[in-house]
Write a structure and sequence with these properties.
Length: 253
Amino acid sequence: MNDWSIQQIAKLAGTTSRTLRHYDDIGLLSPSDVGSNGYRRYDSAALVRLQRILLLRELGLGLPQIAEMLERPTSADDALERHLEWLRLERDRLGRQIAAVEGTIVALRRGEQPMAKSMFDGFDHTQYQDEVTEKWGAEAYAESDRWWRGMDAAAQGDAKARLAALNAAWVDAAARGIPFDGDEAGALAARHVEWLRGIPGTPAAAPGRDVAGYVRGLGELYVADPRFAANYGGEEGAAFVRDALRAYADAHL
């Protein structure tokens, strides 16, 4: 089969014909052919584009952002390679969470005390506690931790989606080799700093603090610590983020 009907694609992708028609209406995903009877057909290239759209939706991007990313001069296989890297990181994190929960269940069924050190592996919001405490103090970590725990599940989900979208944009920018001190990278750095300012406890959110120094130091940490670097596709991507943040800090902070 060289092409598929809209109903077949909707079923395969776990979406609806109405959604696919909306994607067509806004120019996000056009059918490869429309018959004289008005029936839409989709070829393999359209399927690849739809896969990219759904992956970007999973990262928390809105439809306008997705449209912008799809129009960038990046081949589909290169773009999917970056998506694959993110999915592997998510798989590893979820695998650690599954193992942690399985271990707790086994311990409880045996009437044993769960191992505290292994119960929270993969639950990421505390994974950088030692680094934050060492560099910016225990109160900085405690304040950001209170902020996180004070949100309900929906708010936490929104925060995670916002960060995932930011990280995905950084990975995409680094892969395309744009100048770290250009306008596009500068806009990403501004968005990054805005995100930091929204987290209570960070020096970026505290009045009177050396925000520029904090942003530069954070960029260095992204490169030095493999856990941070993984968020940006590895050390090379993290180095791009560091350089862009440094250039932005020098010019605007």
